[in-house]
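Q: what does this look like with ISJ bound?
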Amino acid sequence: MTENMPGLAQVRRAIDGVDDGLVLLLAARSRLARVAGRIKARAGAGGRDEAREQRVRQRAASLATALGLEPEVATGILELAIGAACRDQGLTNDLDQGGTGGSGRMIASTMHTRSDPTPARAQQLLRFVPPPRRIAPLLRVVPLAVQQRLLERAMAKVLSGPLNGGALEFMAGRRLGIEVSDLALRWVVELQGSRLVVVDAPAEATVRGTVTDLLLLAGRLEDADTLFFQRRLVLTGDTELGLTARNVLDRLPWERVPLGLRIALNRGARFASAARSAHRAGGGANT
Ligand SMILES: C=C(O[C@@H]1C=C(C(=O)O)C=C[C@H]1O)C(=O)O
């Protein structure tokens, strides 16, 4: 059938050549990463370098955009390459409890869940977990005041360091919206004194995302840049306020968040993400 299309065979041969080149380049990258790993190990500084990984992703996304390629194509391939390089160096994706990285932060990578595949049986069971949009109507029976109090308490816990250290001063009198799209939840928070409170007023800037992506961000399993690049988190309204808030959250001293909460967020995010993958694999959409 394809032989009837003039020129197609030649173009496909050229595509094959490019694909071979891609694989060759990936093999070369893998060798170089191994050398980097050895150099770091010799210097006694083995471990993942989150900031470096972030720069790698950002460079690829910018170059791809400049070349008219979807940035996700480049970052997706690099994400796989970085994950493989880390596994090659024997680096794990687990919670960083102040170990090798030096920064004490947990490693953020989209590979966390993918490099730790969910066993087939668990995958089947996860499909029975209702997707968030089906849980949304149930949440509506939770009184608004209760929801607000829970959110205020969670923010006070997670953000106690920046709140007491004055890092959130820029939020004084400003109103930031948080929208969990698939749960149909929406809050507007404002800094009053040293407390973030939920208010009943329009937001100046809003961050919107699914519960799974927001949990992945809060649990540091994915970083804000990746989520914004991939438009899984969307910022609307006053961009400056939104970006400042995002940057502060990005620099959040994770090691100061109570360990129990860190683990709960991490587990919750992994669970939500695994359930989403199971739904997608099962043909579910928008979960
Ligand atoms: C290769 C290195 O090790 C890891 C792998 C990276 C990569 O594949 O680009 C980047 C940072 C490190 O987490 C390195 O430190 O450069």
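The CA atoms of residues 133 and 182 lie 5 Å apart. Confidence is low (pLDDT under 50) at residues 94-116.
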